[in-house]
Amino acid sequence: MDSVAASRLADTLSAHHQSLCDQVSARLLAEYPEITKSLRLEENYTPVRRLSSVAVERLNELVRAILIFDLPSLADQELEWAQGVLPRSGVKLEHQMSMVRWFFEEVRKLPIGSMEQAIAHEIERYFLGRIKQIHKLHAL
């Protein structure tokens, strides 16, 4: 991974953090309204803001860490944890896969160059592949 392009992409994700996370959260809730039941809604939080804060913002920060440290494997522990915990709250494989796909769709809409696009695509593939692998292991 080109460190300069990765750093630029991490900065762009930081700069567009809130709108990116809210867009993905809104899309998830529109497509999967059942997710609302798994959110512990607190005062002053809309379902979109709550989902954004507990899921999509975590994904954004994880992607930024991967970019900064050039370590896709940083995602592994988070994805293992998610597979062990989220299904108990009704979060399914399709929800996780959609969140990752839609997050990176939104990333591709940001003002980034072709190098950053390639890095984003590489990280997206890594996440989707690991989610599938971990899900299969836990399904056995």
Explain this structure.
This protein has one domain (3-139): Orthogonal Bundle (Globin-like). With 140 residues, the protein is mainly alpha-helical. The longest helix is centred in the C-terminal third of the chain and has 26 residues, at 114-139. It has six helices and no strands. It starts with a helix and ends with a helix. α2 packs across α3 (47-69) and α2 crosses α5.
The Cα radius of gyration reads: 15 Å
CATH class equals Mainly Alpha
For the termini, the CA-CA separation is 34 Å
Helix content: over 70%
Kindly estimate the percentage of residues that lie in beta strands according to DSSP: under 5%
Q: In the residues, how many domains can be counted?
A: 1
How can the largest sheet be summarized?
Answer: none
Would you identify the CATH architecture? Orthogonal Bundle
Specify the overall morphology.
globular
Short summary of the structure?
By secondary structure, the chain is mainly alpha-helical.
Core attributes:
140 residues, mainly alpha, Globin-like, 6 helices
Write the layout of secondary structure elements.
Layout: H1 3-15, H2 17-31, H3 47-69, H4 74-85, H5 93-109, H6 114-139
Helix pairs in contact: 1-3, 1-6, 2-3, 2-5, 4-6, 5-6
